[in-house]
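User: Can you write out an input/output pair for a complex, sequences first and structure second?

Assistant: Here is one pair. Inputs:
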Amino acid sequence: MKIKVPLKKANRLVNHGPVILVSSFYKGRPNICTVAWNMPVDFDPPKVACVIGDDNYSFECIKNTGEFVINIPGKSLLKKVIQCGSVSGKNIDKFKEFGLTPIAASKVKPPLIKECVAHLECKLLRKDLAVEYNIFLAEILCAWAEKSFFKNNRLLVEKSGAKTIHHLGARFFAFPGNVIEVK
Amino acid sequence: MKIKVPLKKANRLVNHGPVILVSSFYKGRPNICTVAWNMPVDFDPPKVACVIGDDNYSFECIKNTGEFVINIPGKSLLKKVIQCGSVSGKNIDKFKEFGLTPIAASKVKPPLIKECVAHLECKLLRKDLAVEYNIFLAEILCAWAEKSFFKNNRLLVEKSGAKTIHHLGARFFAFPGNVIEVK
């Protein structure tokens, strides 16, 4: 079950640098792209930025609609994450192609990807930065996390179902091992 | 021993979302701040972005000089990383205070932090984005990594000396466990 994450804590879903799946909705259908380059930008209102190359169909989708969803996949989705990053969505529906389930977002038109651990519904703030640097700077309008993997206002990335994916470059990926609380 | 990393592979040092120590040099002395929010932005020329709050002394240092170094600390530096993020460098020298060693960079005035695993020498590209969003977008001029922890053009974050620090929010930190190569 997905629960709402307080907006001021929304950034914590990507604070530790995971690979994300960005979903968009353009010309009547959804699309997905895999993105390693992303970071929080502000707490209140919460902002986030990610980089999507201008040779991706998602670049066009989001530049033209101003809306996207950041979905945080767990390790079990690694194969689909790589698949989503390997083909263009210009002529295929990646949800159908790779067996992912779109569910309605609450504030934007692009769907959440049900199989992911957490989600940020985003509204683009600066189209010019997308055009000049491929940077999609956005406000977070709503945030969601799987109830069993979000406690004490953080993702439980040490749990096997919530281990996030961290891209080291090329075909190398790291996953969280231990988590510590510094007193 | 530190070796130069090919500039086109420089982004890989932060591709997986580690906490960084940002060093600067202003008014005759160096400063350090701890930053969780950072991401690569481009490959060639390589660009990177990080977020430094405008209430930090480092914000002023870098806005006024246009230069900084991204240093990537390993897990053994966690205590110093938290200390560097807990006090202002306006009136103290954090290198001396926390027992860190400045060594000369090759292209910029801010020093590298010797105890870190890797380094990116950076030149600020857009002062206006720092002022408006606290985003420091920069070109990477030179990149370094500890020879024993950089192989096949990636950081060996699965090795105990090169485990990077990933901030989950509050006082929670994750560290890389296993790394896999997807064939």
